[in-house]
Amino acid sequence: MGQWSYFATTQTATAVESVLGPVALTQPDEEELVVARGTSLDIFRCEEHRLVHICSGCTNETVCCLLKASSARSGYNLLVLITVSLQVLVTRFDNDAKVMQLLGAADAGSMVQDATAHPAACSVSAQGWRIAVYLYSSILAILDLTGLEAAFDHGGVVDLKSANKMFYVDMSEQIACLDFLLSDEDSDGPSERATLVALHAREDSYGGWEDGPKVLCIHCIDLHKKSSKAAAKPELPFARGLANVPGRQYVDATLMACVPPNTAGEWAAQGAVLVVGAGFVRLYDPKLQPLSSLRGIQAPLVLVKANACGNRWLISGSSGDLHLLRLEGTRSPELIVQCLGISAPASGIGTWKYGEYAFIGSRVTDSEVLHLWEPKAEAPATTSTTGQPRPTLADAFEVTDRWTNLGPITDFCTKEDTDGLTNQIITCSGAGEKSGSLRFIEMGIPVEELGSSEGFGNVLGMWALGSHFLVLTRSNSTEVLRISECQSGDGDFSLEVWAKTAGLQLEEETLLCCGVCDRVVIQVTQSGVWAMNSENLAPVSEWTAGAPFLTASEMRGGQGVMLATQKGDVYAIDFQEGSQRLISAGEWQLRSEPSCLAATTPWCAAGLWSDELVIWERKKDFWQSLTLPTLPRSLAFLRFSAAHEPELRLFAGLCDGRVSVVTVDGAWRLQHTVAVGLQPVQLLPFPGAADVETDMGPKLPWGQPCEGAQEQDRLLAISGKGSILQAQSQRVLRWQICLPSMSHAAFFSHGFGCIQHCMAFISHERLLLALLRLGQRIDVRTVPLPQAPRRICYHTGSRICVVGCSDLPSISTPDMPRTRSRANVQFVHSETTDLLGTMTLGQDEMVASVVAVTFAGDCTEYIAVGTAIVLDNEPEPSRGQVLLLALRGDTSVQTAKCGLDEEPPFRLVCTLEVPGAVYTLVAFQQMLLGAVNNRLQLWNLKSGQLVEVCRYSAGVIVLDVQVMGSHILVGDIMRSVNLFRFEDSSLKMVAYDEISAWSTSVDMLSDNHFLCADDGGNLLALSRGELTASVGDVRILERVGRIHTGEFMNRFRPGFFALRVNEPRVKTTIWASASGAFGVIVPVNCEKTFMRLLMLQDCIRRELVPMLTHSTLRGGTEYGGFLNGDLLERFLDIPEGKQKVLALEVADAGLTTSENPVLELIQDVEGLSQMY
Question: From start to end of 181-232, where are the E strands?
Fold first, then answer.
């Protein structure tokens, strides 16, 4: 097996890192919003209660801070991005290319040897010419943006360091927060002096700020001398005898911001300093003399201006409590804080329309768009008092939109559907109290159910007539259902068998029902064709022939149908509106029995039981026959908009679940075949793009819609699963529909009542009325949990998800002492999403791992839960347990006392105390393998107790373990990865990585191909091939690949998303990250394919530079050993002319083998993308 891999992102980041708004980037003086999620950046136009997407892009690293700077263009702003590694990127919007354009950059973090783990504290001056960024220790970077745009226009991207537009100053202490206080800038440009206010603090050993007061100081920056002078020395830590003096205040604060001058009254003539801490809000003058103070928010997270003048501020608390702070008073300030209600714990807030609307971006739960209004006078300042919640208050806002956030994904498991064709993933999402949830995720187009009814088995066909009739046929019978909306208005509907059907033949099996003009529909049976009124189904006309008919098809683009007999006689029947008659418009003779028909002006097609496809032109003597891979069962013509004029394709649904695509270029030829299921394929053309729901709101900002869709350019393919097919020049786009066991579907082309774009489906013998959300590519079901989920596994026998939950200790405030809720194990049914029970753990005990396991000689599927006793005085847990659970009702083992108030579905079998935290558990050769601190331990089950088989002590802390065969891959917190082999009842190290890496997750693609994700957003590929060096009997793992993903990957799991039909079962790996992103890694076994796509990748990188990309990954090659699927799959969407240019470059290097290099490259990329 090769050592190469294909990396792809299926779902981009959803956790919001930073928000900026209002800002004018794409249009002068517009109100726009910028949202950073992981490495993704989105710009929206603010329109009342909604956000309209303008453009998207990506960076090399996660963006942790956004700033608005001044532009030389009147009415516009520049956008400044600061990444987690302290890269500073200055950008503007290019109105010609419609992308963000990089103007200048400074890699401020390249000189950082021991950088802080905190997001960068940063600020921009009032006029937007200067930027201050805190780097590390006590070092502050000052950037000068004057003349930047002119320098870019003259010579390209500006290196701010080399251009002498960036310098460093020493601020004496570490900085938690900073802001520019006074502006010495005038309308002609910046001056040589600036005043900063900094909130100084010191880090503790865990990366947080030390407890106790911080120091607030004023600093004067001389931009000419590139120096800083503090008004008073910022001495830390606070000690008795240190006094508050002008320019220095000791305060136990968490947030700080400067109030603009002339905000309200005379007291703000020179500006002010606003400080927010746990339980208080304070206001200081420019010399840090107290002006006003009041009790306030318990645990503030974010402080932002709610309007331009700065007399209204929004404060978000750690529990999602949202507060409005008003600065009032003429001669002396008056602070007024009122609670607006409970929203989401914010990581960033943007406002528009003078603070009437706000976007609350969150890392830990769903983000929200709010319409704010004035709180009532009696609204309190906080949501609680003396530790007790206040009575319920009406929120002073309305949630107008909600953006689903999957992050942070701390763990996930996969669940195959009943036929094993697709995977559903179930994520542990969210963090903190009331923010945790399970997310049941399925890739595909969501189905919004409007109502359902049981009892629809043995249905052979279904068609919608008008806006309220549904025709269903079974063997030798047909019935008509009238669907009515219930007057309750709750979305339910009622069904009744419609007896007034004089024009419909009910005693025969129906072959086809369709509309031919505004008020006429046609029914085709074995005996003939029947036309009737679409409103009351009264008869209009009929046409019959001698021989019974076998199959029929609608004439697309005409007013009639085609039908055929068993002997191969084909008839075209048209409806004349003037005479209101059915007439024969053509007859043809096939050489054998047809299985299906299709027609569109001017072409006709028939599939034969001899695996042939016959195509002829209706009014010309042109016939052509093609051989298909197998028997065709359904045909459909499809038009799509090409570069110059609409092109035609013929789709053939085959009996084995595949769809063959036939194209015409002088003559018809078989282009390619795609798989959509395992059952015979039924093809249904969409009635037209105007009748299709294409919701592209930002609440589910994943994937792109079917862009450029025109009438008749999409098909619904049903083969057990449902899929949407859309034609392009040399490929077919395919999206799965998230509805299991679909057997029939019908379109209400005129809508259902007042509901547009409605469809009817039959799934599991159940009739559904539903909408397809074609603008979305992922279906998410959310199950809120009382605590944040940390670990999860899936119990196959009971279809129950076992979830380990716990909350982080709460923040201690004067009114609310620090508390820690007890962790628990919760049981959630994967089908109904019902919470079935809870098992509560002991005090200070946390869930660290959970896995399903079976033991030799015992068919019981157990659940093993690893725990850790977490104490404040222990840097690393010294005690933990392994709990073994079994499903109730299984009498193969004795039940231990569970000690639960309510009986959960699982019972405790046995417990095992261990000297440390059980960080990971995995099933291994019908035994249980665990990592306890830095030890590997293997247990077996004997006489109802876990008995140790062997152990191995190595490394610092083992965070992840993966197994394959007799091999065990161990991910260590500092020592990268080690490979062990189990033989002779002992563990033996066989290979290790000699280069240190802070691994977060590991995986085994094969016995010789391994993956390791580190804390810097890098993915490493390692190999222990024959040529690697060795030390004694232990080999050295060679690093054969590296790709910078920008994602903090928490977990790898085997699995896949796409339909797996008629394809080799290559092991694919799903990854998930803290930002809510997930994707796949696919091994590439063919060296020629890898080298061909590697060159294509380099060509695409050169021609299609990702937005805002600044530099390659520091310290190594960015894509060594990996194919970047996110980049390669852009080849499928670029214009055909550009595809030919890139393909020709690859062909000139001798890497292609076919006469059509474009098609060869498309098939290579699609072949890899379809494997997941």
Answer: 193-200, 214-222, 227-230
**CA–CA dist 60, 650 (Å, integer):** 42
Query: d(Cα 634, Cα 631) in Å, to the nearest integer?
Result: 9
Closest-CA residue to 562 (of 540, 585, 545, 579):
585
Residues 6+ apart with CB under 8 A from 48: 353, 357
826 three-state secondary structure: strand
Asked if residue 663 lies in contact with residue 691, where contact means CB atoms within 8 angstroms, the answer is no
Which amino acid is residue 401, in one-letter code?
A: D
* Distant-in-sequence contacts of 415-421, Cβ < 8 A, 24+ apart: 415/794, 415/799, 415/830, 417/740, 418/740, 418/741, 419/678, 419/720, 420/1060, 421/677, 421/678, 421/720, 421/721, 421/1059, 421/1060, 421/1061
Give 680's DSSP letter: P
pLDDT tens digits, 348-366? 999 999 999 999 999 999 9
Among 1046, 772, 1058, which Cα is nearest to 12's? 1046
**Other CB atoms closer than 10 Å to residue 275's CB: what's the count?**
26
Distance between CA atoms of 343 and 434, rounded to whole angstroms?
A: 11
Tally the C-alpha atoms within 13 A of residue 711's C-alpha that lie toward its C-beta.
6
With 0-12 / 13-18 / 19 or more C-beta atoms within 10 angstroms meaning exposed / middle / buried, residue 164 is exposed
In this structure, the number of other CB atoms found within 10 A of the CB of residue 81 comes to: 26
- Of 989, 975, 969, the closest CA to residue 1031 belongs to 989
Please state, in angstroms and rounded to a whole number, the distance separating the CA atoms of residues 832 and 150: 61
Return phi, psi of residue 104, to 5°: -150, 160
Where does residue 218 rank: exposed (0-12), middle (13-18), buried (19+ CB within 10 A)?
buried
Pair of tokens at residue 823: 């962790």
* β-bridge partners, 187: none
Region of residue 675 (left: phi > 0; alpha: psi -120 to 50; beta: else): beta
The β-bridge partners of 189 are 186
Q: What is the spatial distance between Cα 83 and Cα 1111, in angstroms, rounded to a whole number?
A: 12
> In the prediction, which pLDDT does 190 show?
59
Phi, psi of 1129 (to 5 degrees): -70, -10
The pLDDT tens digits of the residues spanning 188-217 come to 555 678 889 999 888 765 556 777 788 999
CA 1057 to chain centre: 13
Tallying the residues shown for the chain, one arrives at: 1172
- Indicate whether this model's pTM tops 0.85: yes
